[in-house]
Design a protein that fits this description.
With 253 residues, the protein is α+β, with helices and mostly antiparallel strands. It contains seven helices and twelve strands. The radius of gyration is 20 Å and the shape is elongated.
């Protein structure tokens, strides 16, 4: 994911560009740091739970009451889910399901042994836009080198949207966030917001050359500040590096 902020040209004229650069980067960096830290803590919580004997048992009758209590205790996850290698799953919202998620990218990565955080998607069990924090479930047996399943905690996109929408530098400024495909997942214009099932146009491909250029900088993890015409007015644009952009390694057993 990437994050960027637009700051009013008229407001910026009242201060030096150097001051704007420093204050703008600090504001956006603060928001990115908050989201990164929040996601990191959630990822550690998911990995810790996946290593418990309760989750490793893959016995939903045993895991369900335990995970429901963990949802209440942590109070950050929408639900927890255990998935078998064939893609069938059970979660703390709907119990056992006859639906399948073997086509989900986050499931495939976790089954290959890599913890990961997904792009937003529409949940097949609840119909709500979510982000999955997924990790492999490893067997207790030292001879088994492949995951025996996948465990993930799903969080609502609302938390990230709240942080991004709080980024302001004057009344005419706003921020937005992109997923890994350059599609907006948080944006003042709801028509531009995207999920896996309901993709909006990628800002990398839209006709607006200025917005296209900014999106390309965001996805390429470029930083800087420049004056461009956006939404019919001149604005200073501050792209910031992607969060969650470090290469995901194998989960320790």
């Amino acid at each position: 994911m990437s994050i960027s902020a637009y700051f009013s040209y008229q407001a910026a004229r009242k201060i030096t560009l150097e001051d704007l650069r420093g204050k703008a980067f600090l504001e956006v960096q603060k928001g990115v740091g908050e989201i990164e830290e929040w996601l990191h803590v959630r990822k550690v919580e998911v990995q810790t739970l996946a290593h418990t004997s309760t989750i490793r048992s893959l016995d939903w009758s045993v895991a369900e009451p335990y995970l429901k209590s963990e949802v209440e205790r942590i109070n950050e996850f929408f639900f927890f889910q255990i998935v078998s290698p064939d893609g069938l799953f059970s979660n703390t919202k709907v119990g056992r399901s006859n639906k399948n998620i073997k086509d989900r990218d986050y499931f495939q990565k976790a089954l290959a042994g890599k913890s990961n955080i997904s792009d937003p998607f529409i949940s097949r069990s609840t119909g709500i836009p979510l982000i999955a924090i997924a990790t492999p479930i490893w067997s207790n047996s030292p001879t088994n080198n492949s995951p025996i399943g996948v465990f993930h905690g799903n969080v609502k996109v609302d938390h990230i949207a709240k942080v991004v929408n709080s980024l302001r530098y004057g009344k005419n400024s706003y921020a937005f966030a992109l997923n890994s495909q350059g599609e907006a997942i948080v944006h003042p214009d709801s028509a531009l917001m995207s999920t896996v099932e309901k993709p909006a146009p990628s800002l990398l491909k839209i006709p607006d050359r200025n917005l296209n250029a900014i999106a390309q900088q965001m996805v390429n993890k470029q930083q800087g500040i420049q004056l461009m015409e956006i939404d019919g007015t001149k604005k200073y644009i501050t792209p910031y590096v992607r969060w969650g952009s470090k290469k995901e390694g194998e989960t320790p057993r």
